[in-house]
Amino acid sequence: MIDNATKIDSFDMAILNALQKDGRISQRDLADRVGLSQNACWRRLNRLNGSGLIKASRTEIALAELGFDLTVFVMIRTRHHSKDWADMFRKHVESLPQVRDFYRIGGDWDYLVRVVTRGMADYDRFYQRLITDVDLATVTGFFAMESIIENRPVDLQALQS
Amino acid sequence: MIDNATKIDSFDMAILNALQKDGRISQRDLADRVGLSQNACWRRLNRLNGSGLIKASRTEIALAELGFDLTVFVMIRTRHHSKDWADMFRKHVESLPQVRDFYRIGGDWDYLVRVVTRGMADYDRFYQRLITDVDLATVTGFFAMESIIENRPVDLQALQS
DNA sequence: GTTGAAACACCCTCAAT
DNA sequence: ATTGAGGGTGTTTCAAC
Fold it and tell me: What domains can you pick out in chain A, each with its CATH number?
């Protein structure tokens, strides 16, 4: 899906870095920040937009202030390991609106789901729907007491040391 | 921190919903989508920007394509439960660049950290630094085999059923 | 890669309804 | 709440270097 001919240099990295932190930065400020002219920066941005490296731009909402104040990490162990069952289970989990992240993981557990709910009653609605008509071996929820860091941008230019 | 006088109606919810999905949507398209005039939409957007409900706008990068292809959920059990120790531990974890999310959780474990690394060697750098000079009871990593859903917007208007 | 300029789209404000 | 219009800002393209 990514154009492998796309070569990414440190200017591109700086652009992506800045966009991660602030998706609304103006092209003038972006150009200043990375040390390019507005024109050159625009050309690179255009290339990056076409490269597939930029997935989306999202506004982050203070969900807790709107009542979505309970985050739960749900670890799931399944009993079935066929392709068909896995496909069915995926669709089932994707259909639950409280789900924000959904990973297939290795180790003791098979899946990890991060759900954001409007309090415990809403979490229980999620849980009841999760286990309805689906045969799961174990389901355990780890309740977030405090979000210390959420969705922190990755430093693309960090030295590998 | 939130102005409690701010009343949020279904138009505001629709605006926040749209911004979650696309933080770069033009005000014209946004107004069309939520069914308001551009002018009315702008006024609401202004109010929302001042309300604290809008935290940030971030561009999501295809990190795996840039080599950041290993996501690990790290569960941590501590041995110390004083305020001072907790403050020190927080700063320690925040200083590690691979950390994207950091929660204090309830249940069997004390903390959950989501890290994104450039492969296993980079994860091991994180791990070694994590346990250096810090006395942890247990550290277990759950390695993501597949990201099925990542950072899905919350449907603010979903019926509570 | 750079600057500068023109054309266009978008944002913000205001007036009137 | 709405439409419409004007001015300022930001984006995009182009020409020249």
Answer: 10-59 (1.10.10.10), 63-143 (3.30.70.920)
